[in-house]
């Protein structure tokens, strides 16, 4: 089967950073399903691993997590899917990735593809949906009130996670949604997704929140540049508020938050599959819930750009763009 991989981690500009290869087609066993991959999207985790992590066995390392496709085989322990089902999912960090024609995945973390979306539109959603959903409902517990403004500040609202987080917050909560965006096109994007207010993350955040006259937000969800905004977040968040983030700050002074008794939460949607947690099937349930919201017309795909086919050249182009930090929404590759 066709696939894209690498043997030595390095900068995307190097010829060997991503290579078109042929690999044996996997076979579904146990609780796995084998999916014929129709579309994949690229996330920051792709370039972070590509630039830093060698293959564990010295062979090819295949990246890719988001995927949408058709079930071709089911393991003997699988009861929720059958051959021919259309699915979407975000894979696991400890298994080969989705940048391949056929991909094995644990059925518990797979959802049924929204019927109203095409392959590319669906592939844009899983990883970011799981990240945003878990961050808001499992980590920040936004349905449990905080003595402050019933509002959530989403830092980096125009990115992949921010774009779906805005929509989920609007559809699943009564919170006032404040998003950051710094360019005219990204500001319009987050407004179109449903943000009540938009502020500029290239300027100090706390004064802009104060100017909204809504009070101190109970919740802050930071998707990018958390280290840069930490002092502002500590100033603007409500006492006893909840602060969550998903990026990898080199340093984070938690003492900034002690006086306000702010709780701090790090979200990683791969945790359930990394550790095989007893609630691992929650991810399949989340994706199924999201599919209902999409098919009911309440949430839209965050796809902004599509390339074809899925090959090394196109993946290099997308990796470079994601790594630049200038991407809006999600970029998807479709078809081999």
From TrEMBL:
PANTHER family per the UniProt record, alphabetical: QUINONE OXIDOREDUCTASE
Tagged with keyword Metal-binding: yes
Organism: Klebsiella oxytoca
Stored InterPro entries: ADH-like_N (IPR013154), ADH_Zn_typ-1 (IPR014182), ER (IPR020843), GroES-like_sf (IPR011032), NAD(P)-bd_dom_sf (IPR036291), Zinc-ADH_QOR/CCCR (IPR051603)
Membership in a protein family: Belongs to the zinc-containing alcohol dehydrogenase family. Quinone oxidoreductase subfamily.
GO molecular function: oxidoreductase activity; zinc ion binding
Domain called Enoyl reductase (ER): residue spans: 10-333
Pfam families found in the cross-reference section: ADH_N (PF08240), ADH_zinc_N_2 (PF13602)
Protein name: Zinc-type alcohol dehydrogenase-like protein
Keywords, in A-Z order: Metal-binding, NADP, Oxidoreductase, Zinc
Superkingdom to which the source organism belongs: Bacteria
């Amino acid at each position: 089967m066709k696939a894209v991989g690498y043997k030595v981690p390095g900068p995307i500009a190097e010829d060997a950073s991503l290579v078109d290869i042929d690999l044996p087609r996997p076979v579904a066993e146990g609780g796995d399903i084998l999916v014929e991959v129709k579309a994949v999207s690229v996330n920051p985790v792709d370039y972070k691993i590509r630039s830093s992590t060698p293959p564990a066995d010295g062979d090819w390392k295949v990246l890719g997590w988001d995927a949408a496709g058709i079930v071709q085989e089911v393991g003997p322990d699988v009861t929720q899917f059958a051959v021919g089902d259309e699915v979407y999912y975000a894979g696991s960090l400890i298994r080969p990735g989705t940048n391949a024609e056929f991909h094995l995945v644990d059925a518990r973390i797979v959802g049924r593809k929204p019927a109203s979306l095409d392959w590319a539109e669906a592939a844009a959603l899983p990883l970011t949906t799981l990240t945003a959903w878990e961050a808001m409902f499992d980590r920040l517990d936004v349905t449990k009130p905080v003595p402050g403004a019933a509002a959530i500040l989403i830092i980096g609202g125009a990115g992949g996670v921010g774009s779906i987080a805005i929509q989920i917050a609007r559809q699943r909560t009564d919170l006032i949604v404040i998003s950051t965006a710094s360019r005219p096109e990204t500001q319009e994007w987050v407004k179109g997704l449903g943000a009540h207010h938009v502020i500029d993350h290239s300027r100090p955040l706390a004064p802009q929140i104060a100017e909204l006259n809504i009070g101190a937000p109970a919740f802050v969800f930071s998707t990018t540049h958390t280290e840069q905004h930490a002092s502002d977040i500590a100033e603007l968040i409500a006492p006893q508020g909840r602060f969550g983030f998903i990026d990898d700050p080199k340093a984070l002074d938690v003492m900034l938050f002690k006086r306000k008794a702010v709780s701090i939460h790090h979200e990683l949607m791969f945790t359930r599959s990394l550790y095989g947690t007893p609630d691992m099937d929650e991810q399949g349930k989340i994706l199924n819930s999201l599919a209902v919201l999409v098919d009911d017309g309440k949430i839209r795909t965050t796809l902004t750009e599509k390339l074809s086919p899925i090959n090394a050249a196109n993946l290099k182009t997308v990796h470079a763009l994601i790594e630049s930090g200038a991407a809006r929404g999600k970029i998807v590759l479709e078809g081999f």
